[in-house]
Amino acid sequence: MNVFGVDIGGSGIKGAPVDLDRGELVEPRHKVLTPHPAAPEPVADGVAEVVRHFGWSGPVGVTFPGVVTGSVIRTAANVDKSWIDVDAAELLHRRLGAPATVLNDADAAGVAEMAFGAGRGRKGTVMLLTLGTGIGSALFMDGRLVPNTELGHLELHGHEAEKRASTKVKEDEGLSWEHWARRVQKYLAHLEMLFSPELFILGGGVSRKADRFIPLLHHIRAEVVPAQLRNNAGIVGAAMTAAAGHG
Ligand code: BGC
Description:
Blueprint: E1 2-8, E2 12-19, E3 24-25, E4 30-33, H1 40-53, E5 60-64, E6 68-69, E7 72-73, H2 88-96, E8 100-104, H3 105-116, E9 125-131, E10 135-141, E11 144-146, E12 155-156, E13 159-160, H4 162-165, H5 167-172, H6 177-195, E14 199-203, H7 210-213, E15 223-226, H8 233-246
Parallel strand pairs: 1-5, 5-8, 9-14, 14-15
Antiparallel strand pairs: 1-2, 2-3, 2-4, 6-7, 9-10, 10-11, 12-13
Residues 65-67, 75, 77-78, 104-106, 130, 134, 136, 150, 152, 162 line the site of beta-D-glucopyranose.
């Protein structure tokens, strides 16, 4: 079965039909630039453009980089604040003429990694972190998601973690791998103190360069591995969630 997945990010809106049996994109994804300001109507237009590119007319799963309860957006740390209190599924349904399911971007990535990637078959407490513009988190207990954990906003030494250890901060401050890895390590140690996960899965674009920083992370008891689905995890997880909701 195929369902369409879309990932709304700070720089791009990307999507493709997903083969749900294999957890893979059926065709190469299509991307449009995220409009600025990234307000609801222009972003919905961007999602519609991506979906239209494939001539898709069925259900669509969509990720959002903020808290999503039911289908209502509650926070918007890295997109336009006018999203807050918008029923995103309703907006997208109207715009696409097809049912839409909306969930947090890190939760979507986590759902895909647990089914098809680094978390496959893993029991106990597993935590996926997406290191990107912000830091997203997805927490699993025996494979079941605890949604909207928002651990990128955890305070660490008086700073929000995502303002210290995201890859955007690494770039903005020109940090070396060693310097940045020390910050990521402190963050993981703090999360470990609070949650004692068995496994950390590190995702986001930087997972492609895992060999540059994962070997620099010391004193973490949990296993630390890179995400495997790379930039497609959000798209795959969104499609899986849409299928679960409309199956
Ligand atoms: C948001 C999260 C999101 C993460 C990654 C954070 O700023 O609050 O909801 O998952 O960025 O996009």
